[in-house]
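Task: encode each sequence below as structure tokens.

Item 1
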Amino acid sequence: MAEIALTGAIALLNAVLPFLQSVYHNNKVSPDINEVKELLKTMRSYLMDTEGREETEGWKDRVQKVRNLAYETEVAIDEFMFDVTGHPHHHRVTIALHNVRHSYADFKPISRLSSQLKDIKAKINSIKSTDPFRDVTSGSNVEKIPPEAYPISRDDHLVGIERRRGKICSLILNNEPRYAVISVFGGAGTGKTTLIHEVYKMVKGNFECCAWVPVPRSPDQLLVEICKNMGPGIDGREMLIRHLQQKRYIFVFDGIWKEDEWNSIESLLPFNDKGSRIIISTRRRNLASHCASPHDYIYDLNMNPLTWEEAWELFYRKAFPSGKFPAGSLVEELSVQIVKRCERLPHAIVAVGKFLSSKPSNIMEFKKVHDSLEFEPGSSVGHTYIKKLFQSYFHLLPNLKSCFLYFCNFPEDHSVTRGRLVRLWIAEGFIEAKAGKTLEQVADEYLDELVQMSLVHVNKWDFDGKVKSCRVYNLVRGFILFKSENDNFYTVVRGAETRLGENIPRRLSLHNCSPCISQTEGFRNIRTFSVFGVDDRLESMAKELFSKFKLLRVLDLENAALQCFPQEVVKLILLRYLNLRNTKIDLIPKSINKLQNLMVLDLRQTFALELPMGILDIPKLLYLLIDCRCRNNATLGVEVSQGIGCLKWLQKLSLIKANNKKGSIVEELGNLIELRKLGITELKNTDGRDFCASIEKMKHLSSLYVESTKEFLDLNYVKKPPQMINSLFLRGRLHNIPEWILSLNGLFKLELRQSQLAKSPLEVLWDLPSLKVLHLHDAYSGEVLEFRAGWFLELRKLVIEQCRWLKCVVIPGLAMPKLQTLTIDKGDSLTMVRIAISTLTRIEETSVPEELIEFLD
């Protein structure tokens, strides 16, 4: 939709205004920018209000014109910023000469920008005059989105229903007199409506009054729908409440999206003590929790999907209603692949199965369907499921829509880490600044919202409750590709494809292929370029290719086949994100300081041993992620220059050496007061006092990695530690556990490596209130590690390894009551692990040599 493009253009206009006002005090362009910005805001509001209500050719043409105007605005601003962005200067004479020269040199770009903005205003006014923006009664497009569809299946093909309805039935028929609200939660196509409908038919005879209400988007219509179910004579809220006050009723409200809708329902019904029940369905996890009463009356369909056998049975019944399976193993093989692509989502399986049932059961037809689900998500095969997904999509704000569509950048079945994803979102400009929060914190909220709406699937959770890695389901990704390509949001080129479509791409992602250099005339407008899949041709093409990317903001070459840093990259002066992780580059050019807009630089797992002085001249840098991969795959810190403390906006800095050729840098690290993550290696014993003084100044620090040389780590000088630290890694000899660690009430992960403590660390760490992960690697030089009852009440994961002198580990029954994962390696001396049977049986994942286990009474 065009509102995404408009939001991007408005954000860029907001960003350029302060620059113009600070550098060009008497410029005449700022009023034009403000006027264009307000006009674009009006157009965005109009399009958001009419989305889903109009699908005429005239409306589509209007959307296309508006989108093109938004893109034209972005190009004008980006070209202006490209022309006026200067190079860093340090000496006051060169600064003065630079300012005089640019006061003349910048006259032409400013004049051009002014002319372009006037042209854009004229085009906007032309659209308004030929097709004036009509008044829209609603303030939100979601008001007109139709309610949830009725059950997708009304026949006897209700596979998996009997297994899954048991818990809901027990909550409804448990004879508890107090009213209860049961929330059924699940993503699009998981079968919420079908399951609830079958349960409703089964139990409604036990109630005096019953109603099934697809939730309308209008509060007034909600009352009408409820009263309609009550029969004649019931009209209005007061009459409805009197009618239900003394009755045992069961109501189903299918498809709740917002708390306001639930508040409206609550205001219309009497919550009596007659054993009444309310069932709601929603795609939002947080809303399910909000509505459920008692709070644990939640049934999560995402956690109770169809089994593989049930999914196959459902597909078989729908695709082959005659019950005859066609001969030929290839048809069966393709059927298996189709079911896998549907990822056990009942609605998708039914839609695809029904489509196939009307086609000849031969290899060609099945192959067409299989391929269309991946490459043609807008085809008739996936159309039913896509319509279902539209409901979730329409409820997203423009910034969230951009974040959601961005998943098409990643290949199918590819999980992306939370960190990489949110850094990309930030660099793209999708994240709206909020007072008192970092951009990353806001991005985390966006990701959580997408997860809560079941649009994004979490592959791994961290023990602190954060997403560790995630992806979208295959058919959801198909929908995203469909929308992205239609709206020219992202262009994805896959496999054997080497040519681009008709649209001039704005973002380009290559999956296991190389771009067609002969087709690069449209590359000047590309803002994002990413590569997945190693292709040796990339390096040979780099110079010619990157020279086309004048306005590039994001360059993601993680895992690319690069031996050297591409020199053309330093000319991309609008670049905000540069990822060269896991490439073979070993030298970073001094001229990297030309990248004055760079926010993210990821050089992890490269062969670069040091960073040039030029890094210190990049004022907007937020993330400096570096480490050196040795030939034996060991990871080392990277040497940085004196002056690192001038990067005052840095939020993450890891992994750097504490000392360079000129001496220690630990004292000036105290200037980096915005740091959230710090990783440092080769810390000397003599650095301890200065390092402790520096980290005391980092009030926002949440992750700390410290590695010593072969000397003892001396971290006992911290008096007021940053209370936000939740992850701590210490590698090196310790005389004792520093006392300040015991005051970290939010610490959830602690790893001690090669500490070789003489005294058991358990005796001082046991009472940390939030500790969930404890990793002890060669951390103790004693012979017995004994846990005690009541210790480590929140611990979920325990790893004990390489403790060379350890002979016995004792774990009684009342220690670590929430432990989920236990790993103890045999080591050199270990002869016995004494553990309570109750503890061992409740642990989900155990890796302990069986011959060492001895059960406690």
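Item 2
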Amino acid sequence: MRFQRALCIAGSFLLKFIRKMTSRHWCAVPILFLSKALANVPRHKALGIDGLLALRDVIHCTMITHQILLRGAAQCYLLQTAMNLLDVEKVSLSDVSTFLMSLRQEESLGRGTSLWTELCDWLRVNESYFKPSPTCSSIGLHKTSLNAYVKSIVQEYVKSSAWETGENCFMPDWFEAKLVSLMVLLAVDVEGMKTQYSGKQRTENVLRIFLDPLLDVLMKFSTNAYMPLLKTDRCLQLLLKLLNTCRLKGSSAQDDEVSTVLQNFFMSTTESISEFILRRLTMNELNSVSDLDRCHLYLMVLTELINLHLKVGWKRGNPIWRVISLLKNASIQHLQEMDSGQEPTVGSQIQRVVSMAALAMVCEAIDQKPELQLDSLHAGPLESFLSSLQLNQTLQKPHAEEQSSYAHPLECSSVLEESSSSQGWGKIVAQYIHDQWVCLSFLLKKYHTLIPTTGSEILEPFLPAVQMPIRTLQSALEALTVLSSDQVLPVFHCLKVLVPKLLTSSESLCIESFDMAWKIISSLSNTQLIFWANLKAFVQFVFDNKVLTIAAKIKGQAYFKIKEIMYKIIEMSAIKTGVFNTLISYCCQSWIVSASNVSQGSLSSAKNYSELILEACIFGTVFRRDQRLVQDVQTFIENLGHDCAANIVMENTKREDHYVRICAVKFLCLLDGSNMSHKLFIEDLAIKLLDKDELVSKSKKRYYVNSLQHRVKNRVWQTLLVLFPRLDQNFLNGIIDRIFQAGFTNNQASIKYFIEWIIILILHKFPQFLPKFWDCFSYGEENLKTSICTFLAVLSHLDIITQNIPEKCVSARWQCVTVPGKLVHIFRKIKKALASDKIKCCLSVLNMCRKEICLQSIEKAKTEQTLSCCGVDE
């Protein structure tokens, strides 16, 4: 009795605790660790349906704006909390499946992760104890097995309702398709746990039991013309979600039997589905605004079927091949017929949009998969039509009265309101223009060799869009002013092909394209979903190696505009982590590839933009304490590795600041010191690094540990140490005095250590510089009081430095060293040790002397608060 009462109290406390997590505006870090604490509560029956709803509210309400990795990790812990603390007799499988839908599969619950396996095991152990689901009860199943529940929801999902008879109805929401696909795959994997060595046949039988209703409907797509529209929508949605959800994360994806069987099932329905989609896209059956979402669904399914057939091997007699060819020809015919100048109707305009979207899908598929080349390299009907397109052509908006005749009575007002408004029709026109540029991007990539590089235009071009590039570039600039930021990607792809060809002859137009594109990027800094894809495309066309080379060669306005944008990107990266990473990784990769492809390994382009490598080597902002906290927690999560499913589901984007420096140093390490162009680049960078160190030293004579100045100097000397093996004696002869001079500068201890080591390495490799080193002890006392420890530290490695030099020579040179009067008594000890030819003994004396000097300096520095000037610990 007492035990039950204790459980009741614990359950009440935990429920209140979870509800408190939803009632306050928590930031990501406390929510993460509170969730982790809940997941570590010992397993017992403490929560019912109220607890499950409270956990769902935490995910939906509290974490919606949190950083993606922290949010994903917190979701993992909350799912573990549910598995540990739920009283399964108080919740049904329906309640559990609804809760699972609150977890984002792209952030936490991915198939193939340890969390997925843990969930499957929990369902296997508890499936007979769940409360009966309403779905099972409604069809007469009172057994609470997972298989029975999944079979019932698939049957219910596929079954059509009496009201699903309208032709102009909105497409169903994706929620139900996601839920059904998730539960089907969980049930299959749970069944695999029960019969671990059952093999492919068992997996196929289980999947067929679940998916028979769906497969039956899909097989009837091409023959049953009266099938309810919403039923076809739902079946295609479920097909897509099953294929997307079943993909394993990790290295075991190739051996996944479930994925293979599922793909084979859907490939058997390819002909029926593709015939249905072809009819819907080409026979004027899509004639209302609500049908545009349906068009998008059809094209996604068609793309997925193409991918499936490419995996098993593409054959020319494939039904998909025939459908793509017919779809291409029908779309071209529709677009040509609709240029007759007749009064537009909603149906005709929607069909125009659908045909252009279908052509865009065909072009994207051919561009990404060369196996789909329907024609030879010679221009065919598709290329001729695309090249003569009137770019940025808008669609005339039909009259509102005419639109209403195409709408279903129940939804007439909503369709009319959306499509007749300027904003609603504007979105449709923007999508139409976007699809035009997708097609043109395919055309320009395929025939880029035909683009003339001079300003003169061909009189009778057979591919006008390709052979009249100036006009096409002007159209691209117009498109950037019309399209929204989430639709400019294909225009950026076209600019990547056009700008290198026209930079010499039409520099002003190219600069205008840089400005307009940057304006779009800089306005997107808070839009995560589209920012990174746009930034990547922007960097690829502005910092294309050909563009950089041509701009540096002519040294016109484009060259300075590119450098201006480069510094703007670096400035933006101080606010938005990861921006500089995109730029430096692309440039380093393209420079290395271009250098390896040229016989002489030319790095002329990189040399003209060496400031980029310089900034990358010293990059790293000083973040606020709260930002550093989030970064530290993200590192903590990443270090959990496979134990946290969020690390597996989400790819590491490598947007942390240190990846910029890693990329730059890796680039420098890949350079060949024996190659003259590489050697000159390294030497130029070394000089710039020394200039940077001197600039920082002059800007602030005294700086604090971990300040920005300290970090910059630290990274300068780190990079110089990396470059040292590729520096020869002739070059060092010109910079050795600057390196010794840096030893006299008032630096933090860590900087002193780097300077000491580079001096040691230089003297060891090139003993010829020893006289210059001895001269450093001849400076006045004012210079030596802040630097003597640096040079004494070098002397402590004298046995290594002078391995190949007779000890008598070293001892003789010591006799000529003069030091300030206050340090004479110390150096007498050193000379005495050297006179006895005992260098090892001398080293211990040096260390003792170094400590004595430091103690004197520290005593003097107490009033000046410069304890770190000596370069050693107290």
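Check on item 2: Confidence is low (pLDDT under 50) at residues 403-420, 837-842, 853-874. The two ends are 64 Å apart (CA to CA).
End of task.
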